[in-house]
Structures are given as C-alpha cells and as structure tokens.
C-alpha cells in the first residue's frame, strides 16, 4: 500500500492534468483520451473520477510534442479550449475555471491566461533549425550532435533506446541533423496514460541548449486555419499546399522569440502533414536538371519557390520528357511534380532515378500501386478491363522492355507464370478484327464488332449474316 501511495505521489509531482472547455456546452471536464474517430473523451473533474484523468508530463518539450499530436487527432479541435493544471490541485482549478466561465471576473481571466494551452503556442512545426542555423556542417565527420549529448533515459521512455535506433539505421542521420526519412513507432509513457503513435524524429536544441528529440506526429491534415509564424494562409496558399505540397511563393515569417522577419518558403511533410518552413538563404538550385541547363530566369523562378515547367529533359533510358519541378522546404531539394489526381502528386528528387519516366497508363488504363511497383522493376503484370477501338473489353499481360523503354503486350503470359486468371485465346480474334482490320472465316460476314472472347456468330441474326455472301476487304487471320 505504501509503494502504491509513493508511486501516486511521484506521478502527481511530475505530471499535470489536461482539462478542457467545450465551447458549445460551456462546461469544464477532465480529458481521458481520444476515441478511434477523433472524438474527445472526458469525465467530470471530481475526486471519484481522478484515476481516469489523462496525466501529461510537466516537461515543456515532452508536453509540446504530446499536445501537438493530441490536438491534430481531434475531430473538431476548434470547439475546445484546453488547460494544463498541476495534478495536486486539478479538481480545485477545474472548479475555479468553471466559476469564471459562469461569472467572468478579472481574477478568473488571470487564471485562464495562466493555465490555458493555446494551439499556436504548442503546434509549431519543428523547423526551428531551418530558420535559425545552417544545414549540418562537415566538421566532426558530418556529425552535428554527439551521442553523449542525448538524454537516453528519457528516450528509453519513448521506446527509443540507442540499440533500437542503431538497428533501425536511424541514429546516424539523427546525429547528422536530419529528420528520419520514415515513420517510427514510438510509445509515450506518462504513468497512467500511454500514447502510441507513428512519427518522424529529429534532434534539436531546446531553450536551455539541451539536445532533445522532436516528435513529428501524423496529422489528419495540414493545420492551415491557424497562423503559421505570423503568416495567415490565403485561399490560394491552401490550395497549393494541398495539391502540390508546396505553397509556391516566399512569405515573411516572424521568429517567435526574437521577432525577426525571416523570408521563407513553406511545404508540407507528406508523411506527417506537418507544415515546414525553410529560410530562403538555404535554397540551393542546381545548374542543370536532367540534361537541361537552367538560365537565370528559370533559376530565379525556383529560388522564389514557384513551380517551373521544363521541356527536353532526358530520362535514364535516354528518352526525352517534360515535367514541372519545384523546391521543397521539407526535403530541401528540387523535386519533380507528377500529377496523380486532383489532390495528390508523386514527387521525386532531381538527383534520384526517375521511375516516373516509366508510364503508368497503358491503353487508357491506369495501373494501381501494386501493379506499377512490379511493372517498373521489369516484372510481367496482368491487366484487364482494356477496351478495343470498337468498345469491346479484353485483357492481357504487359512487360517493360528494358532495351526500348516501351511496353510489350501479350495475350499469353510471356514468362509462362501460373496466374489465377489468364486471358482467353479468343481475345486474339476479337482484337485482330475490331482493332486491326483483319478477318476471320467464322465471322467475316458479321457486321457488328465482335464482343469479348467472341470467335463465332453469337445469335441467329449474326448466323444469317455470316451465311450471306458478303465480300470482305480485310486481311485473313
């Protein structure tokens, strides 16, 4: 019993309680969690319910990371106001805040200002490094931070031991000052509350100069309805960020502490939907992109964060292609923009191999992600629901010809792989007659296009047509 009390006392000493005001009901509650559909879970802030209260870490850095992820998961975040109060006085403070809500006073306003957690003060993109300091230097073997600078005890509470980071090949890029290029499963243990999430990680100094881990959690969508370092997003800004992932212009951002005005570009982290800003001083444009040397006007366009359409580039297969490119603040390089629909774009570094040189469409049919992944590495892919020139359906196999860079089509699997569904031999007749103008003895007098798999008259009318002596100018098959 004594150990239990001691544990509870430690939890109360090192944790706070998250209270919430529902602006519709105008009622203070204690937060217990978030439901699967983003709904906020709460209980009355009473002694009876205090074991259900969500406890949050007192540490500014840990709480900031926790709350930014917590807030971004809410279904209707603007409906609520949040307050972080000491665990020992949580019930009393809840009563005092409720009293102020019911009967506003000057003393109550001070109470609100003291404990309220405002989203704009916690949901900040972890681009502080990009705004204040240069990119990782080449000193100390390209390492920006040293392992001994990290608080490994705190990291272990996140499930991020040194051994695990090394096994995941994440420690070196983190120490070099980069954000992990993939999502990492982590767990935040706050005693009576455990939060599990996938996030990208990075290292950065806090206000005291200590090196801490920044947790870039997944948001349902970019936070475009809140000021971003003093910038209010226009309708066009929002549309650009949601479609291309880049805002497309330079804006002046305000440093949260020094008040300095910083010209920057803004992009969306496509893994987390986090907004990322990059100081324009750090934008570096290559002299040449895929064989096209950029002139001064093209370079200036990219330096201003705008998209640029370039013609006459040469792919790795030696084929000419054209595409739009743009500098991305998160990736810190010029990327290609390949449209994949109204709201999604496939992007890629100009230094990387262009898988987008490989067509995703074949005879009007778009390959799905799984088909395209196998197709672009040279595997044979089964494709159905194709339509010939007469509007009839057929199916077959496609393979990327490495020598020509073109697509080879076959009605039979060229690799003779055992597939569950194989196109019927009858499709050969259908395509030859409908699309290639050839004729077939069994159907040469039929006036209508052959239907899928059809090799002979399908009904009495076609049978009569076939028997009629009609001359055909087509080639026999």
Could you please describe the fold and organization of this structure?
Helix 3 (90-102) crosses helix 4 (106-115). The N and C termini lie far apart (91 Å). With 477 residues, the protein is of the alpha+beta class. The chain is elongated. The protein is built from 14 helices and 25 strands. Strand 24, helix 14 and strand 25 form a beta-alpha-beta unit. The strands form 8 sheets. Strands 1, 2, 3, 4, 5 and 6 form a 6-stranded antiparallel β-sheet that branches. Strands 15-16-17-18 form a 4-stranded antiparallel β-sheet, covered by helices on one side. 24% of the residues lie in helices and 28% in strands.
Throw out a few tags for this protein.
25 strands; 28% strand; 24% helix; alpha+beta
List the helices and strands and how they pair.
Elements: H1 2-14, E1 15-22, E2 27-34, E3 40-43, E4 55-57, H2 60-72, E5 80-86, H3 90-102, H4 106-115, E6 116-117, H5 119-122, H6 128-132, H7 152-157, H8 162-167, H9 171-175, E7 184-189, E8 194-205, E9 211-217, H10 235-243, E10 251-254, E11 261-268, E12 275-279, E13 288-289, E14 292-293, H11 296-303, E15 308-314, E16 320-328, E17 333-339, E18 345-349, E19 361-362, E20 365-366, H12 369-375, E21 381-387, E22 393-400, E23 407-410, H13 426-434, E24 438-439, H14 460-467, E25 475-476
Parallel strand pairs: 24-25
Antiparallel strand pairs: 1-2, 1-4, 1-5, 2-3, 5-6, 7-8, 8-9, 10-11, 11-12, 13-14, 15-16, 16-17, 17-18, 19-20, 21-22, 22-23
Helix pairs in contact: 3-4
């Amino acid at each position: 019993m004594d150990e239990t009390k001691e544990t509870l006392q430690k939890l109360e000493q090192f944790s706070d309680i998250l209270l919430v005001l529902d602006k519709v009901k105008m009622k203070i509650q204690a937060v217990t969690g978030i439901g699967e559909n983003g709904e906020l879970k709460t209980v009355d802030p009473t002694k009876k319910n205090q074991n259900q209260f969500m406890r949050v870490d007192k540490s500014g850095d840990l709480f900031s990371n926790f709350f930014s992820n917590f807030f971004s998961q809410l279904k209707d975040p603007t409906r609520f106001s949040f307050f972080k109060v000491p665990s020992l006085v949580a019930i009393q403070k809840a009563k005092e805040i409720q009293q102020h809500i019911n009967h506003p006073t000057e003393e109550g306003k001070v109470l609100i200002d003291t404990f309220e957690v405002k989203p704009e003060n916690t949901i900040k993109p972890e681009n502080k490094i990009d705004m204040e300091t240069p990119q990782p230097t080449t000193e100390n073997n390209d390492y920006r931070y040293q392992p001994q600078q990290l608080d490994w005890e705190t990291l272990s509470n996140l499930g991020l031991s040194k051994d695990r980071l090394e096994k995941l090949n994440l420690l070196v890029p983190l120490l070099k000052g980069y954000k992990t290029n993939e999502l990492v499963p982590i767990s935040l243990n706050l005693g009576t509350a455990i939060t599990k999430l996938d996030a990208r990680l990075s290292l950065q100094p806090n206000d005291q100069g200590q090196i801490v881990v920044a947790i870039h959690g997944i948001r349902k969508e970019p936070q475009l309805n809140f000021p971003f370092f003093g910038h209010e997003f226009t309708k066009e800004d929002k549309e650009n960020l949601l479609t291309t992932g880049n805002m497309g212009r330079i804006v002046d951002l305000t440093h949260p502490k020094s008040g300095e005005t910083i010209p920057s570009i803004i992009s969306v982290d496509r893994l987390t939907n986090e907004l990322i800003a990059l100081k324009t001083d750090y934008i570096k444009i290559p002299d040449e992109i895929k064989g096209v040397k950029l002139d001064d006007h093209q370079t200036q366009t990219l330096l201003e964060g705008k998209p640029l359409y370039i013609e006459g580039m040469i792919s790795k297969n030696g084929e000419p292609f054209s595409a739009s490119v743009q500098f991305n603040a998160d990736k810190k390089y010029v990327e290609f923009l390949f449209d994949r629909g109204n709201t999604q774009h496939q992007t890629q570094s100009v230094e990387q191999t262009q898988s987008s040189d490989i067509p995703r469409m074949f005879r009007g049919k778009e390959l799905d992600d799984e088909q395209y992944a196998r197709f672009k590495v040279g595997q044979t892919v089964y494709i159905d629901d194709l339509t010939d020139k007469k509007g009839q359906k057929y199916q077959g196999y496609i393979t990327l010809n490495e020598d020509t860079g073109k697509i080879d089509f076959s009605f039979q699997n060229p690799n003779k792989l055992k597939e569950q569904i194989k196109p019927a031999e009858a499709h050969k007749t259908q395509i030859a007659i409908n699309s290639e103008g050839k004729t077939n003895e069994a159907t040469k007098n039929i006036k209508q296009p052959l239907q899928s798999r059809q090799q002979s008259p399908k009904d009495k009318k076609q049978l009569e047509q076939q028997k009629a002596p009609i001359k055909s100018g087509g080639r026999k098959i």
